[in-house]
Amino acid sequence: MKLTTKFLGISLANPLVLASGILGTTGASLAAAVKAGAGAATSKSVWLRRHDGHSNPTVLNLGGGNLLNAVGLPHGGIEEARVEFENFRKLSSAPLFASIAASNFEEFGETAAAVAELKPDLMELNISCPNVESEFGRPFACSIRDTKKVVKIVKKKCGAIPLAVKLSPNVENIAEIARAAETAGADAITAVNTVGPGMVIDIETAEPILLNRVGGLSGPAIRPLAVRAVWEIFEAVKIPIIGTGGVANGRDAIEMMEAGASLVGIGSAAKDGLEIFGKIKKEIEKWCESRGIENISELTGKAHRS
Ligand SMILES: Cc1cc2nc3c(=O)[nH]c(=O)nc-3n(C[C@H](O)[C@H](O)[C@H](O)COP(=O)(O)O)c2cc1C
To answer: Mind listing the pLDDT tens digit for each residue in 155-182?
Structure first.
């Protein structure tokens, strides 16, 4: 059966993508994800200038593969990205997706322009981290107006590089935000970022465990929410979707595709080992072969046709 996938003109060996921020901190770790079986790798969110993120503890293991994180998008800045992207290119010929982050509209434009020069295969606009505030005190992805404005600014800087916009599940109507992104020029939607913010308290000290107090939830607990979001977005827009959230095995990936995803992002499940990519790939292949499915793209949006 055929796992190879074309996404916005980009050729991938399979539809599995390392999600942003999970192990994608260096060119070597991004390349290792591809070597382990990912069809593409997404960098952690690149900032124009050094961005320190939050202080430890920043990641809590909640069990069952679920995480609560408040890493706060630490990054060394554009020069670090240049070095790591070059390192990746030396090690791998697979597609590299560059996630970008910023704290205001102008900085998003500048960051997109600088990252476009590094020639990633796709730019992923992260406007959805629940623990990084925009200038209005909430992520841009929570507002139709802000989403449209930032997408228009960034799209102009992308040139021929396709633009995916990463949305937050923490909104009343994710479909209308996706539609706003599409209208403003997005070529794809990535859904979803972490859910929250959430809090966990140490009952002995009676204090929140994360130093930031709150963080974003990821892992299997959020999968039904991500599947629902992808389903609604698929109904609302014509552009393709990178479905992300809680995927931990082949069945989860298939479900995400049936909901409407063309590519499947894997984050938290990769934290305990990159072998997960090879394992999920094999499970998808086996499942498809046993059902006479010859081409993986047949799965995208299947749940809308049944
Ligand atoms: C530790 C950690 C760091 C993350 N960093 C980023 C990031 O830099 N940029 C981004 O867009 N998303 C980031 N995310 C969100 C993931 O890319 C993904 O959207 C989310 O975790 C849901 O997928 P999952 O359940 O497969 O982890 C991060 C998630 C975790 C757990």
So the answer is: 999 999 999 999 999 999 999 999 999 9
Helix axes 223-236, 250-259, angle to 10 degrees: 30
Give the pLDDT confidence of 112-148 residue by residue, as tens digits.
999 999 999 999 999 986 555 554 467 888 899 999 9
Q: Where are the extended beta strands (E) located within the chain?
A: 5-7, 10-12, 16-18, 40-42, 59-63, 66-69, 96-100, 122-126, 163-167, 188-191, 195-198, 201-202, 207-208, 215-218, 241-244, 263-266
Element (H, E) at 230: helix 223-236
Ligand 1 atom with the smallest distance to the CA of 73 is 8
Closest ligand 1 atom to residue 247 Cα is 26
Ligand 1, atom 5: closest residue by C-alpha: 21
Q: How many domains does the chain have?
A: 1
Q: Which residues line ligand 1 (CB under 6 A)?
A: 19-22, 44-45, 59, 67, 69, 71, 73, 99, 126, 166, 193-194, 218-219, 222, 244-247, 266-269
* CATH label of the domain that carries residue 100: 3.20.20.70
Residues annotated as catalytic (active site), given as ranges: 129
Write out the residue range of the structural domain in which residue 284 sits. Answer: 5-305
